[in-house]
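Need the bound structure for flavin-adenine dinucleotide, inputs here:
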Amino acid sequence: MSGAYSALQLVRNALTGHRGWPKAWRSPQPRPAYDVVIIGGGGHGLATAYYLARNHGVRNVAVLEKGWIGGGNTGRNTTIVRSDYYYPESAAFFDRSVTLYEGLSQDLNFNVMFSQRGMLTIGHSRGEMDFRRKLVNGMRLNGIDLEMVDEAQARAMCPLLNPSPSARYPILGGMVQRRAGTVRHDAVVWGYARAADRLGVDIIQNCAVTGVRRDPVSGAVTGVETTRGLIGAGKVGLAVAGHSSVVAAMAGFRLPLRSYALQAFVSEPLKPVLDMVVSSSVLNIYVSQSDKGGLVLGGNLDPYASYAQRGNPPTMEAVLSGLIEMIPAFSRVRLLRQWAGIVDYAHDSSPVLGLSPVANFFLNCGWGGGGFKAIPAGGETFAHTVATGQPHPLIKAFSLDRFRDQALVDEAAAAGIEH
Ligand SMILES: Cc1cc2nc3c(=O)[nH]c(=O)nc-3n(C[C@H](O)[C@H](O)[C@H](O)COP(=O)(O)OP(=O)(O)OC[C@H]3O[C@@H](n4cnc5c(N)ncnc54)[C@H](O)[C@@H]3O)c2cc1C
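Answer from helper R.:
Posting the output first, comments after.
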């Protein structure tokens, strides 16, 4: 088990050539059975394991990861954290997550580098400005810190915005969330992994789940088949993002989700030029500058369902032309890397959280392109749900039953965002 990080530890290890640091987490052999098995070692799986141990005293827990922890979407995302959601259910959940992120470095004893640099979403027409004003008013009624800014204020925040009065997509102002920002994605994974490991959770990498065992009489889940053998489980939590439908099929049911590639891009490193997140829903582009100086860009999903984790050139072209329309000064910046992750969407663009049709098998999925910001609240509420067998009050609206009951939480339509 690793000791707590502190200034004293830093000094002590500096004096001994940094050879004495303990491993951040163990690599244990899987035990024959656990009280809880979480499938998927991304941010949600690891956070769930941590809160199960810390908040509920459930420590006989394994997180099974088919590759390496954080190798899925959590390590591939563009790290934007915000809570500008429209419906009260979404606002309460995602704002809880921002609040947890604000204290996460202290909580985990691991610097997750939350930079609350603010996020500006541009308005390009009078119609869009009216729409954004409606959103901002609704979100403020939900207690979220959104505000409208006019053109001069938007340009003061981001002087590089397209200065041309005859731009095809003129800049009229926008909406700002000042508590929004970016968090270092790897640090979130490593911080939760280390903290969960210290509480006794087994993190087992290179262990793919290949089947789900159920009791032939009751139908309840009894364990999982893996590439490292059969592992018994009192309860199983699903947290595999883009592969949720695949694992649900192993348990014998279907989910109302589709999986798509979502791409991201990073440029060569630049000196500091952009100190907030800037986005445009019309141009389908968002950009921030990383601590290393690269511009981190994203846009829309690839337009067809696929498990091919590579993306395609037309989406790349759309994102880059949107960026150059919004900030023409970036037209000569060179692109360094491009990648994709597989994300899973429900048709109301809200997550699916809670109970499943199989007893003792729980769902944490449907995050689409927006689940990184939700990791702390997702882990906290999912741990409560797994531990108690009852959905946490903050996630009741996101149950699988909402599709049966026609009680969708349609954030795509309401907030004009896909996630
Ligand atoms: C390009 C891109 C940009 C994004 N940008 C943002 C953003 O700016 N802000 C934001 O909030 N969200 C963003 N997202 C979404 C966010 O990354 C995800 O919603 C979030 O990381 C999901 O976390 P997770 O733990 O559920 O999934 P993951 O991190 O994908 O973890 C799931 C894990 O399950 C493992 N797994 C799969 N099948 C099995 C199996 N059979 N057995 C064992 N393990 C298995 C995978 O290997 C994976 O490591 C983005 C996503 C992408 C792809």
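Comments: Residues 119-178+259-342 form a domain with the D-Amino Acid Oxidase; Chain A, domain 2 fold (CATH 3.30.9.10). The first strand starts at residue 33 and ends at 39.
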